[in-house]
Amino acid sequence: MSDTAVLPRTGYTLRRDRCVIEISPRPPLVRGRLTATGGHWTPGSALTVTFDPGSLRTGIPFLRRACRGDELTFTADEVAEDPFVVEGSVAGRAVRLRGDVRHRDEHGLVVWAAGVVLPARRKPRHAGPLVRLLARRRLRVEIAIEFVR
Questions:
Q1: What top-level branch of life does the organism fall under (predicted)?
Q2: Which homologous superfamily does the CATH classification assign to the domain defined by 10-148?
Q3: In this model, does residue 126 exceed pLDDT 80?
Q4: Which of 29-43, 44-58, 69-83 has the lowest mean pLDDT?
Q5: Which of 3, 89, 105, 115 has its CA 20 to 30 A from that of 123?
Q6: Is the pLDDT of residue 101 over 70?
Q7: Rounded mean pLDDT of 74-81?
Q8: Which pLDDT value is given to residue 120?
């Protein structure tokens, strides 16, 4: 047995089937949900969530096609655990989320948070008019994610 075998595991892995990322511009004319493709979190340290913009589910058919692209990664260097506070970035835009840990046991935890994605500082180069409009607006973000050991 190695020396580290008796140490408790500190990191958590995102459970893809138990993750909801919902975005809506202000005022809330449209709502959309994104699918996470992976992620991990070490409490008191870094948080990373990778999601696919092409997975956007919304009631407006053409909006899904407008949001195609490569995977986006949300990263935050430090995450406060109680209350759950995240300040990070995704695609060059600052993100601020505030929430709490809703459930915790020996197998994992459930995190809920809400906040805003601040407007982009630069216009997107190769984007349609709808994506350019959304880039200039604050987006409200709400997440509910289950992390498991």
A1: Bacteria
A2: Lipid/polyisoprenoid-binding, YceI-like (2.40.128.110)
A3: no
A4: 69-83
A5: 115
A6: yes
A7: 77
A8: 73
Between CA 85 and CA 6 the distance in angstroms is 30
> What mean pLDDT value characterizes the chain?
78
Alpha-carbon span 63 to 57, nearest angstrom? 9
Q: What is the DSSP letter of 129?
A: H
Contact 98, 85 (CB under 8 A): yes
Residue 24 structure tokens: 């809506």
DSSP 107: S
Burial of 143 (0-12, 13-18, 19+ CB in 10 A): buried
Nearest of 121, 90, 122, 108 to residue 23 by alpha carbon: 90
Residues 75 and 89: their CA atoms lie apart, in Å, by: 6
With CA atoms as reference, report the closest residue to 74 among 31, 20, 125, 36.
Answer: 36
Q: Where are the domains of the chain?
A: 10-148
SS3 of 66, please?
helix
How many CB atoms sit inside 10 A of residue 126's CB? Answer: 6
